[in-house]
């Protein structure tokens, strides 16, 4: 399978904008406990269109960032995006590379690593973490933020959204990804010899307490669901009818004055020894 076909969300400009919107929307929650102020040379694995790179360079002004992604297209987009950001000037290097076989010497240049929404797309996440450990200096910090897709819930109850969502996860699984990888980060880090491992479930629970944020999240989630649709239709995981019913139910959830949105993802922090 070509690299392009392996990636569930695809590489359209809508998808690239979705990644940036997603990063900004979740920024407060993702970065609330991340402090990389003592890191000089950060490795960002699976940097995509540079959405997290921009945030990292903004939040940690002393940082130099090396971003890798296996997609030339994403690297091109990230390069174009970061070149428009004044505070990023001369502070980053982006290159096409496979996270399971990184083109870097062992224990040389990096003293921190950051991965966000990446391991879910990779057949052998353990191999990626082993590469991360190999290229980092001893005592370096690693921050992982990954999905746990079984936690998604909306009220009013929406059976077609559920069906569609499980098909979405089935497709990701069959494409050799892992939509539940977040739950396994602790085990993987421990078996690879990382130390001081901390695991934190991050909860997005939106209801009448924050109606505007809830509306934004439901809109954003609908875009996420639709990002997988072309591949799901093509591979026969869903038909047009299920897709239409899913859209109708998400629309009803969006309009419901008592709607509830819930999703939880996992963040891990650990150190190389
Ligand atoms: C969902 S995007 C996340 C991008 C970015 N981390 C963010 O949060 O916006 C996942 C990225 O991982 C990249 N990727 C998937 N498999 C990879 C691999 N084996 N090596 C490097 N990058 C990979 C994809 O090309 C894609 O850009």
Q: How would you describe this protein?
A:
It contains eleven helices and eight strands. The chain has a domain at 3-152 and 177-205 and 263-271: Vaccinia Virus protein VP39 (Rossmann fold), CATH 3.40.50. Strands 1, 2, 3, 4, 5, 6, 7 and 8 form an eight-stranded mixed beta sheet that branches. The two termini are 37 Å apart. It has 273 residues and is an alpha/beta fold. The chain has helices spanning 3-6, 13-25, 27-31, 51-59, 72-82, 125-135, 159-174, 185-191, 211-227, 229-234, 240-255, and strands spanning 41-45, 64-69, 92-96, 110-116, 136-146, 153-155, 195-206, 260-271. Residues 7, 19, 23, 46-48, 51-52, 68-71, 74, 98-100, 116-118, 121-122 line the site of S-adenosylmethionine. S-adenosylmethionine binds at residues 7, 19, 23, 46-48, 51-52, 68-71, 74, 98-100, 116-118, 121-122.
């Amino acid at each position: 399978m070509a690299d392009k076909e392996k990636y569930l969300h695809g590489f359209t400009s809508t998808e690239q904008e979705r990644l940036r919107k997603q990063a900004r929307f979740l920024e407060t929650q993702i970065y609330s406990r991340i402090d990389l102020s003592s890191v000089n040379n950060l490795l960002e694995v699976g940097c995509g269109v540079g959405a997290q790179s921009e945030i990292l360079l903004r939040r940690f002004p002393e940082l130099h960032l090396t971003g890798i992604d296996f997609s030339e297209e994403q690297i091109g987009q990230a390069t174009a995006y970061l070149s428009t950001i004044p505070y990023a000037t001369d502070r980053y290097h982006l290159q096409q590379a496979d996270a399971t076989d990184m083109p870097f010497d062992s224990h040389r240049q990096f003293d921190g690593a950051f991965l966000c929404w990446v391991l879910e797309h990779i057949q052998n996440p353990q191999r990626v973490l082993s590469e991360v450990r190999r290229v980092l200096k001893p005592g370096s910090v690693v921050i992982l933020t990954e999905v746990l897709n079984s936690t998604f819930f909306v009220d009013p109850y929406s059976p077609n959204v559920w069906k569609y969502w499980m098909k979405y996860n089935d497709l990701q699984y069959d494409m050799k990804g892992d939509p539940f990888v977040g739950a396994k980060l602790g085990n993987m880090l421990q078996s690879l010899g990382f130390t001081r491992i901390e695991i934190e479930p991050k909860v997005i629970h939106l209801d009448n307490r924050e109606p505007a944020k809830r509306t934004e999240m439901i809109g954003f989630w609908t875009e996420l669901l639709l990002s997988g649709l072309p591949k799901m239709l093509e591979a026969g995981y869903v038909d047009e009818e299920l897709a239409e019913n899913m859209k109708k139910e998400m629309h009803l959830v969006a309009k419901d004055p008592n709607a509830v949105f819930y999703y939880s993802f996992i963040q891990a922090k650990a150190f190389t020894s």
